[in-house]
Amino acid sequence: MLFLGVNIDHVATLRQVRLASYPDPVEIAPLVEKAGAHGITVHLREDRRHIQEDDVRRLRDTITTRLNLELALSEEIIRIALEVRPDEVCLVPERRAELTTEGGLDVVSQKEKIREVVERFHEKGIKTSLFIDPDPIQIEASLATGTDMVELHTGRYAEARGETREKEYQRLCEGAKRAALLGLQVNAGHGLNYENTFPIASIPELHTLNIGHAIVARALFVGMEQAVREMLGVMHRGRKEGV
Ligand code: PXP
Question: Distances in Å between the alpha carbon of 179 and those of 5, 24, 99, 187, 214?
Answer without folding.
Answer: 20, 36, 20, 10, 26
